[in-house]
Design goal:
The structure is a homodimer. With about 375 residues, chain A is of the alpha/beta class. The first copy, chain A, has 16 helices and 7 strands. Chain A has a 7-stranded mixed sheet, sandwiched between helices. The first copy, chain A, starts with 15 loop residues before the first helix and ends in an 8-residue tail after the last helix.
């Protein structure tokens, strides 16, 4: 049986429960009340985890822990990216150290981009938006794989780990996880392993719990990385606590499929004007409503497949009572598709205006994050 | 046809001329008079080259150039290693910058050694002997792959080059050169590429000729590295002058085969006492003499296969007139095997006594080479 997961062709994952069962990912429900309140956990955008108990304990006991995430700089920063940024900021507000890795080696090797362009996109699109969304420089280590910040000792410790990790795997193991492997891919994967494990090196703060929030397509990589961590620990070369992970759903694209950088009508960028965003929602957002008002009033809409509803549910309507009312009214047919979209458009416009003002200020703060 | 060269099983290379012809290596003869006098060139221990004209010109015109060599720390430093050390020192005395790379990532990945042990062997065996043989700290960059010396900018520039090189090759190209490839092997090879090319990065002195003295078994790697250099240059990511190489013969082991770390009677270590060295030569050195004195006087000996003669020829008898007399006398039968060995033993003893005194002093100078 092929144990690889690559379900993001165009359909998305339909059956999260099966993935939880087949891949040893535990449901998040048991954790929701153990950590400070958090919309994405509460509403199941984050639906599963591995060893998250260690992180919940660290938060509760005010102990040192790390959240690490990576970004592959490409295209516009959109509301899908925002959902991950909100997780970073949640951990930072709850005393976690935040490591943000710009996977420029991976992007260079796998997407044939230039390091210079990648660097510009990472800073101008991603970092600036993170800052506007609330990321603070204190306790944040924003770095590029190709130029690890800090002194030479730190840079070398990071790269040495990437090099040593290659002894802890085989071509067969990598093929089982990644399919056909090339030298560029192997180099990229070894950097990813170093990214996830290096916050536990003494040069970067030492042994401590690390959580990596990922989409479920990254589950094999987390398993691979946990395996390498345990092989190092067994050989006494390093002591690593196996990294924890949380698994999140992806926000659907406007048209119901994936958000795609190459199709601006599949997403709302955080730099879209409220007018453009409104038009995208009104004209393009996939609806769970019926073909006519009459039919909608009679049969009701389906919020589960309605993209405007999903966007409200996963962040734009924070009030649980209000979102339930929207859900029920749409389901019953009381709320029409146009009305539902209008609710999102108002929330979205308000957010975009405010966010774009913050972006102006954020540009001046970028330097605080770059060593 | 299999274009790989791996002729070091137990036989050694018998036909250097064929290798020169098949692998585009040019004979060194044309270069001997273009550079300051040098026993190893003059006597053909260094027998071939690629693009060495650039180095000869740099020496003549007093322009900046680099000699880079790598070492895989293992076992005792012996008279085979001495021959390469003499090349380093020759270039340093002729105004070349000397980069010495301790291939600890490669040794870790391919030989399963610990980085700590590798480091100790590299310093205590190799570096200390280099110093005793005449290596100076000025203009010498002695470094470990796993911890590139200098600041973070330098460390990153080196590792970034290793990572980027992986995009410039394919699994097929690597298999053609290295046979079966593993993640550890790929990582090692990418570090080797960075070793050879990084002296031309702006962080390390910028574009300039680099010569790598290697055994002929390394010829495919030089070709691979020159290919990657030209692909980078074509893409305008880096400007590299294709690295030059010289090719040297290996000094035969005492028994006529290879010098092997696992068999102390196959080599003379530079830490062997004169007594031990003398016994090794007298009892174990493979002889080109005849079975009896009578037969030897009649038929003469064969210096070409006589290990004691080879050792005199490739360094222990520097005087061309004297070595010719030894050769002719041995060939004619005038000089007996025991007498020939005695000449080497005397030269060797004198060298070892003097060298071991220098080693004592050299230990105190190690720090000057370690950033």
């Amino acid at each position: 049986m092929d144990r690889r997961i690559d379900p993001w062709g165009s359909e998305g994952v339909k059956d999260y429960d099966r993935l939880v069962k087949d891949f040893g990912i535990e449901p998040i429900q048991g954790m929701v009340k153990k950590v400070p309140d958090n919309l994405l956990f509460r509403r199941g955008a984050v639906f599963g985890h591995q060893d998250f108990g260690r992180i919940a304990d660290s938060i509760k006991q005010k102990k040192d822990y790390v959240m690490l995430t990576g970004l592959m700089p490409s295209g516009k920063f959109h509301i899908g990216h925002k959902m991950l940024a909100e997780q970073m900021i949640y951990y930072q507000q709850n005393r976690g150290k935040v490591f943000i890795c710009v996977a420029d080696v991976e992007a260079y090797n796998m997407r044939k981009a230039s390091l210079k362009d990648l660097r510009a996109t990472a800073i101008e699109e991603y970092l600036t938006n993170y800052i506007a969304l609330g990321l603070k420089p204190k306790g944040c280590d924003f770095y590029f794989q190709s130029s690890r910040s800090g002194d030479a000792g730190k840079a070398n410790a990071y790269h040495r780990l990437a090099a040593m990790a290659s002894r802890k795997t085989t071509t067969n193991e990598m093929k089982a996880i990644y399919g056909e492997v090339t030298p560029g891919k192997i180099m990229s994967v070894m950097h990813q392993v170093a990214d996830i494990l290096h916050p536990q090196l003494k040069e970067f703060g030492g042994e401590r719990p690390v959580v990596v929030p990922v989409g479920v397509d990254q589950s094999p990589h987390i398993r691979f990385c946990r395996g390498i961590a345990s092989r190092f620990t067994k050989s006494s070369e390093y002591d690593f606590i196996p990294p924890s992970a949380t698994y999140h759903k992806f926000m659907k694209g406007l048209k119901g499929g994936k958000m795609s950088s190459s199709d601006p009508y599949s997403f709302i960028a955080l730099t879209d004007s409220p007018k453009v965003a409104g038009e995208k929602i009104m004209k393009h957002a996939f609806s769970g409503g019926q073909g006519s008002v009459k039919e909608h009033r009679k049969k009701g809409g389906n919020p589960d497949i309605d993209v405007a509803y999903q966007m409200l549910y996963f962040g734009f309507e924070e009030n649980d009572r209000k979102i339930k009312k929207i859900h029920d009214d749409y389901r019953s047919g009381k709320l029409l598709t146009g009305e539902l979209k209008q609710i999102l458009i108002e929330k979205m416009s308000k957010f975009l205006v405010s966010h774009q003002q913050k972006m102006e200020k954020a540009r001046g703060k970028v330097g605080d994050f770059l060593g």
